[in-house]
Design brief:
The strands form three sheets. Strands 4-5-6-7 form a four-stranded antiparallel β-sheet. Strands 1-2-3 form a three-stranded antiparallel β-sheet, with no helix packed on it. A three-stranded antiparallel β-sheet has the order 8-9-10, with no helix packed on it. Helices cover about 20% and strands about 40% of the residues. The protein has four helices and ten strands; from the N terminus they run βββββββααβββαα. With about 170 residues, the protein is α+β, with helices and mostly antiparallel strands. α3 (about 130-140) packs antiparallel against α4 (about 140-160).
Length: about 170
């Protein structure tokens, strides 16, 4: 995934082992193909992979978008202004614009998103579809669990093959 301006482009990178004559060892042949794109209302400041199929997209207007890459759909949008993410004042207002100002304010590791605010470090854990459905069942909310499962099924039926493949070596 690459974010540029207000757009995010999703790519699939595939590898095929191949030998190149005159070079010791073997090199990999890579093919790259675009498999989707999304447009946002404000500049994209950060992209973070949270799982094989989920990307966190921060925007300059302090919104966090959770994108399911296998359906190419923004699943949730959250206002992050309360986090007061740190940014470089000079970049934000004078030199390069808001997309550069938030450099290194967010990071993802182990399925968690870390956001560095001006007075605290916030940790966000995003639940997958299955986990969200399980929680609704545990809270004895079967109709909501069923509705969420049906929504997921419908999105999967409508989607094309978009996003990060199951095998990490093909990403």
């Amino acid at each position: 995934a690459i974010g540029w301006g207000k757009d995010v482009h999703l790519y699939t990178v595939s590898e095929a082992a191949g030998d190149v004559q005159g070079v010791s060892g073997s090199l990999m042949d890579l093919s790259v193909s675009e498999c989707g794109s999304l447009s946002f209302s404000a500049e994209v400041t950060s992209l973070q992979w949270l799982s094989d199929t989920t990307i966190a997209v921060f925007q300059a207007d302090e919104r966090l978008n959770l994108v399911e890459t296998d359906t190419n759909v923004v699943q949730e949008v959250a206002d992050t202004s309360a986090l007061r993410l740190v940014y470089h004042q000079q970049f934000r207002e004078v030199v390069a614009g808001p997309e550069i100002a938030f450099h290194n304010s967010t990071c993802a590791c182990g399925g968690q998103l870390y956001a560095l605010g001006s007075d605290q470090l916030s940790i966000v854990e995003v639940l997958g579809w299955g986990e969200r459905i399980d929680i609704l069942v545990e809270k004895q909310m079967p109709l909501q669990a069923l509705a969420l499962a049906m929504e997921y099924h419908e999105l999967r039926q409508r989607s094309t093959s978009v996003g990060s493949p199951e095998k990490k070596q093909s990403r």
